[in-house]
Here is the input.
Amino acid sequence: MNTVFKINNPQTEALASPPISPWKLALIVFGPGLVVMLADTDAGSAIVAAQSGAQWGYRLLLLQLVLIPILFMVQELTVRLGLTTRKGHGELIAEHFGKGWAWLSVGTLLVSCVGAMLTEFSGIAGVGLLFGVSPWISIGLTVVFLVVVVATGSYRQVEVLAILLGLFELAFVAVAFVSHPSGKAMLQGMAQMPLGDRQYLFLLASNMGAVIMPWMIFYQQSAVVDKGLDISHLKPARWDTAIGAVITQSIMVAILVLAATTIGAKNPNASLDTVQQIADALIPFLGPFWGKMIFALGILGAALVATIVVSLTAAWGLGEVAGYKRSLAHHPFEAPWFYGIYVLSLLIGAGIVLSGVNLIKLAIDVNVMNALLLPIVLGFLFLLARKALPEPWRLKGWYAWLLGVIVLLTAGLGVYAGIMGIWQ
Here is the structure.
């Protein structure tokens, strides 16, 4: 007998139809997890992975694999909170811990969002320069494009476009196979983790901050609410998150392996201070045309999907505490603050980048900052899972203990590696 599910939430498009099969339900529910995970492998994260492979070979590869289940466990709690409470992350913190703590949490979110926006626009500018396009043109066109997309589309339309843009990142996975990495060298590299080296710790912290970011938690929780999902969609929403976690870490692994196999093995002293220099270092191994095109498509796809996600997260998160209307279901004139904050975040990021910044140093520093913010981000998430979730879905028992230990170790390692790396 085929199992069928019925969706009762009238806010979700096509959800008022008769009972549907699990596959059709998955197509309707899937999206928030895939989008946030594709955005996770943003321009800054791609640069950090490339730097890791070029400088340390495969010594940071094991970390990327270990982070897969951790990333899923963190984002699954976010999904559970959104589906059961139908409220955003900042809204729940204000409700259970007070406005002061909510503003603190949103403050960390906005800091992370600003840092992310800088790396995204820097990546877009770098790709433009590869083809001789001025940053003023590439960034200006990007801002106009993203404003039009969000102002004229529904949540579903924005989600589909973000997924299509993010799929360009899979080019890195394909090219990593072509680079013919040595399985023996990968295993040997994973067995070597020089935790006494401060430069290694600095990149380790940056990799952790590149995978678990504050804005991811806010975005996915707000997205499942804005999409109109509820607790009856928990199972497919978990699969959406799990598949996304595997995809995003596969991309990070691919970039690291590609850089280790090419730059790290054959040109370890290459200067990697700009997007162009990383592309130039890869071109001799991939060919002048495909080297440039693959790198450009991967970085551009990552930067565009992350720019959409991060700017929407800033507008959603601030609205959850400030109390203004915050949904893509509203017309810009119905929710002026929401759309205004979205546009303002784009303009701030674009303006700072056009003033001139070093993308590589910025990308690493921003992700180290994310690692230092992990105690606040993961701490609130864990407490909300213990306090705000209704009894049937509350975090409890052995899983609560396990997740508590993982949160403590993850946040502790991120802070330790970040501080030790800064003081190198």
